Amino acid sequence: MKTAYLDYNIFTAIEDGELSIENILSNIDRSIIAFPFSAGHIQEVDNIKGKTEREKKDFIEKRLDTIRQISNRLYLYQELATNEVHWLKEDPEQVLETITQVPFGKTAMKMFTNLFTAQQKDEFRKNLGIDPKLINNYSPLQVVGQLNTKLTCWGTHDNFIEMIEKAISYHPNGKSFGLNNRIAAAMELLDMLGYWKDRETKNSNYARLWDSNHTFFASQCDFFVSNDKKTRYKARVIYDIYKINTIVISSEGNE
Q: pTM of whole model > 0.70?
């Protein structure tokens, strides 16, 4: 059985009538039989805005129903104690209720993703001699080699993976970190190094956290379907690093 994990932008495109599951099956693979959702999707639903509370509630209910219909309530759930991912049957609304019961979580994540300013990231790239416009021309297979050369010449003698593992080793709970944390770190480091980096906004760091979340859960499926080119390129690099066979593709079947 083949499965496809849809990026959040795919769910919104389907809801807006710009895309359909039939399009995806036709453009990618007709043997796909399941489109699971994750807490990452629901976290993004929780960020929906509205001019009024009533409007916001209506938008959220509509988006939850979209996810419900497409996923058929197939839910990818990560058990934090073991880092294991389970395939469950769960309603998106129930997942949202669970998430909103922990209100401090969103604030903590926003703080975590804003540890470095845009100026600090720019200085970091300049010190390494990295030009984002040039490094974006490398294929996912080439980019890590190029970044490793820059990093090891910088004086740390650590390559891309070693930097991530060293940072994890310094964390008090580092020993319990699984693939999800490593993917989040790799996504952040790729952006900091300028590889298909996101345009800096007040929400860009927070949004990238969900990109890494989707990249992690998509690793459990045969396909990761995203219409965000920057996310696709970063995901391909990360999958290559961690030997993950998930195919990253757009809804039109493009790399």
A: yes
